[in-house]
UniProtKB/TrEMBL annotation:
SUPFAM superfamilies per the UniProt record, alphabetical: RmlC-like cupins
Protein name, UniProt field: Cupin domain-containing protein
UniProt xrefs under InterPro entries: Cupin_2 (IPR013096), RmlC-like_jellyroll (IPR014710), RmlC_Cupin_sf (IPR011051)
Source organism, top-level taxon: Archaea
Cupin type-2 domain ranges (all copies): 40-102
Alphabetical list of Gene3D superfamilies matching this protein: Jelly Rolls
Protein source organism: Methanooceanicella nereidis
Pfam family, one: Cupin_2
Amino acid sequence: MGNEELIGKVSDLDGLISYQDGSVVSREVIRKPTGTVTLFAFDEGQGLSEHTAPFNAMVVIVDGEAEIILGGKPNHLKKGEMIIMPANVPHALNAIKRFKMLLIMIRS
């Protein structure tokens, strides 16, 4: 299902992306000059090493459990929870259990 097919339709976030063993999978849902919305699926034990982004980014956990480290402080998130990662603050993500997340980044 392509992005155009999502417009104006009800979609199950969990069903739009699948886990892959030993991998991190992503699917861009919206890409505009002003920002992006991307779904990710992290298999257990996978993650993203510490990095920064020039804009605030909101993460919503769609399934599973994640550890999101912001400025050295660990945060444990479960399905249905969200956190806003501030611009220019180092952050990292680890899959405590396999998890899916929606990443919303507004570039302004």
